[in-house]
Amino acid sequence: DTGVSQDPRHKITKRGQNVTFRCDPISEHNRLYWYRQTLGQGPEFLTYFQNEAQLEKSRLLSDRFSAERPKGSFSTLEIQRTEQGDSAMYLCASSLASRNEQFFGPGTRLTVL
Amino acid sequence: GESVGLHLPTLSVQEGDNSIINCAYSNSASDYFIWYKQESGKGPQFIIDIRSNMDKRQGQRVTVLLNKTVKHLSLQIAATQPGDSAVYFCAETNPNNYGQNFVFGPGTRLSVLP
User: How far apart are CA A71 and CA B7, in angstroms?
Assistant: First the structure.
């Protein structure tokens, strides 16, 4: 257990529905990252926050995806109008701005039917 | 638990033998590298890191070698144990996105045989 938690661990939804995932980072970590991982691939960067500011978004992050970190602590990732291609593991990681090491949560497995 | 990397390259080693996992990276500007271990149903776990001003770094039972000339990274695990069975990813970052996000390689599944 790295200290990063994600909820839910599994989510099954029907195409077209909206889903929201939550990440609770290690409490003193000011950076928070979201990645997506599909079977047989390494994690792909989606976006990251420093405190409450979203500083970078990948081109992978379509306009159906939105992430927030309103108080600089927990973060949510919302996917609107889900598509089957959104099925993946969504990983959250956190780090200190002064350190490179990112600590990953267990992920949320999304299945879109 | 869930399976990670069903179609990944697989390295099978006998328990007690040494393992060598290789990774090629593409960005010559990358200056920081990490090896992660991912067990089924879990997120990646940090193993060891190395900066581009080094060519070797050792940890407990693990050694990372960096060859910048051919853009190659390797992870050596000494006396491989059953608990080492997992998928291993290398990840790189560069001064343009230092500490912001990592680019992960495709991964290698390590299978330790009894």
Answer: 40
Residues 6+ apart with CB under 8 A from A46: A33, A34, A35, A36, A57, A58, A60, A61, A65, A67, A77
Cβ contact, residue pair A106, B100, below 8 Å:
no
- For residue range A8-44, list pLDDT tens digits in order: 999 999 999 999 999 999 999 999 999 999 988 899 9
Cα B107 from Cα B23, distance rounded (Å)? 8
Q: CA nearest A104: which of B39, B81, B1, B64?
A: B39
pLDDT of residue B81: 96
For residue B6, list chain A residues with Cβ-Cβ distance below 8 A: 39-40
CB contact under 8 A, B104 and A95: no
**Which tokens is A76 given?**
């949510």
Alpha-carbon distance of A29 to B51, in angstroms, equals 22
